Amino acid sequence: MKRMRSKDYWKKRSEVVASKQFKKTDNYILSLHLEYIEALSSIQKDIEVFYARFSQNNEISLQEARRLLNSNELHEFKMDLKEFTRKAKDNKNLQWEKELNNVSYKVRVTRLQALQTQIRNQIENLYTKQRNDTSNILSGIYEDTYYRNIFEVHKGLGIGINFAKLDTNIINKVITEPWHGDNYSSRIWNNKEKLIMELQTNLTQSFIRGDSIDKTSKVIAERMEVGKSRARTLVNTESANIVSKSTFNSYIGSGVVKEYEILATLDLHTSKICRSLDGKVFKVSEKEIGVNAPPFHPNCRTTIIPYFPDTIDIERITRDYEGEIYYVDGKTNYKQWYEKYIA
Predict the structure, then answer these.
(1) Model confidence at 234, in pLDDT bands (50, 70, 90)?
(2) Which residues make Cβ contacts (< 8 Å) with residue 196, sequence separation at least 6?
C-alpha cells in the first residue's frame, strides 16, 4: 500500500491547471472588450455621417429618417452593400449574405433602413468573429485541461496507464454539445439577435424623440455595453463548462480517479451554492453539471479536484489493469511528459 498524497497537494495541482485555463479566458475577454469598442466606434461614425447629411438643427425626426434615399444616395448605399456581401461570404455568414442580396435588389430604400443595415453589418461581423474565436478558445481549453489533468494524476500516483488521445472531431463534439438547452454557438447567435433588435428599437425611439446626435450615440453605446456584458458572461460560463467537462473526461481517462471533490477557492465571488458544496465529495460516474458539478451559475469558477482515500494499492492497480502501464518520475515536467506520450 502506498500513502496517498495530501489533499493540499491535489488542491494546488488542480488550481494550477484550472487557473491556466481561466487566464486564457480573461485574455480573450480583454480582446473582446477591444472588439466591441472598435465596433461601437464604427457605428457611431455611421450615425455621425447620417446626422451630418440629414439633420436639421442637429436633430432628425422619424419622418425625416423614413424619407427615401435619392438616386445618388442609393447608388452609394449599394456600393456599400457589395462590400458587406463580400465580407459576409468570406465569413460564411450565409443568412446575412442572403439578406444583403435581397436588399441590393430594392429600388426604394429609406434613410433609416440604410443606417440600420450599416449598423447590423457591424454587429454581424462582430459576432461572427466572436463565434469563431470562442470555438478556438474552448477547443484549446478542452485539450490543455484534459492532458494536464491526466499528467498531474499520473505524476501524483507515480504510475500512468494508457489513455485516449484527443483529435479534432472528439474536441469539436464535446464543445458543441448542448447543455442547459443550447451550446455556445447558439447562445452567441441569440445574443447577436437580441443586440440587433435592441439597437434598431433604440435608434427608432431616438428619432421619435428627436434626439441630438450626442443623445443618440449615448443610447447606442449603452446597448453595446449590455451586449459586451452578455458576451463576457457567456465566455466565462462556457469556459467553466469546458474546464469541468474536460476535467471529468481526464479523470475517466486516467483510469484511477473514481471520486472528486468540489473546490470553490478560485471563484472570487463565491456564491451561496458554491460555498455550500465546497469540500463535498461525489462519484465521477454520478456527476451532473449544475447540480453536483460546476459550473453552478453564470460566471462560476468553482472547479474540482481528484479525491483519493488516504492509501492506495498501486500494486493492485497495475495487476488489475490489462493495458499498458508506465511509471512517472516525480521530477518529470509537463513538457517532457507531453513530448513523450502525446506529441
Answers:
(1) very high
(2) 120, 123
